[in-house]
Amino acid sequence: HQSKLDFFCKLGYGKQDICKVLDSLGQEALEDDVLKELIRMGSKSQAPESQAEPSQLKLVARGSCSSTSGSKWLGEDDSDSSNHFRAIVIDGSNVAMSHGNREVFSCWGIQLAVDWFRERGHTYIKVIVPLWRKEPPRQDNPIADQHILEELEKQSILVYTPSRKVKGKRVVCYDDRYIVKVAYEKDGVIVSNDHYRDLQNENPEWKWFIEQRLLMYSFVSNRFMPPDDPLGRHGPTLSNFLSKKPVFPEPKWQPCPYGKKCTYGNKCKFYHPERLRQAQLSVADELRAKIKVPLSMWKEEEQCNHLP
């Protein structure tokens, strides 16, 4: 048994497999039979491994917000999953025209917006612009600082929506749908002053997402400025709005104007610092405690009164 074990170990087989084969075939089995059984066991062990490799690639619906290692769309990298900031999708046309005062497609405005989010620590930033903005500027569509688009494209930040010409006419895809779709799938934030009302009516899930994840902005002296309260006065702050895990401050309680003279007890909605170490009892319970009458006696009396 030991000689056979040493012989097949030199051939590269494991001791456990050799012992299993010898136990199943017997100690008197020929070396050829043992070798055939070991080869058959090796082919069986390789088969499930080869079947497990393609199973790692799973198809995930684009409507889901979950991030998988197999999804690589629009330059997504693995480092984005560890980042606690939300993904940023910028409406390039809206930002550029807003910076150009609705007269010029100002690419410098896009650069200002990208730099603002970079300084905050965002790693996933995408700017979506129609492909025809790559063409030379014309009098009816002036473009300023067009070289910025090329630099952002090299950095894998700018993405062009497809378009083509059919019989001299340009066929343009709807870039707003690209913007909302990418932001929805990445569970990120849309940077635009557009309300996308047509897309809200198209999909009820997009309607909620646009209402809750649309970040508006303003340009003040070449300075990109989003509001400190993106969802209104009573909504989250800008830092919580752009964070995957918002941090809310502790509530500040307003002190009671009556102080120790308050008679509301535990029903008082204001803050009582003198009651931190005391149980907040009602006025009746406080009076009973002062008289040193246990509450159980009051309950027994009430039960006796209800008895016939």
UniProtKB/TrEMBL annotation:
Stretches assigned to the C3H1-type domain: 250-275
ZnF (C3H1-type) intervals: 250-275
GO cellular component: cytoplasmic ribonucleoprotein granule; nucleus
GO molecular function, one term: mRNA binding
Key words of the record: Endonuclease, Hydrolase, Magnesium, Metal-binding, Nuclease, Zinc, Zinc-finger
Cofactors demanded by this protein: Mg(2+)
CDD domains: PIN_Zc3h12-like
Entry-linked InterPro entries: Rege-1_UBA-like, RNase_Zc3h12_NYN, ZC3H12/N4BP1_RNase_Reg, Znf_CCCH
Family: Belongs to the ZC3H12 family.
Descriptive protein name: ZC12D ribonuclease
Source species: Oreotrochilus melanogaster
Designated gene of the protein: Zc3h12d
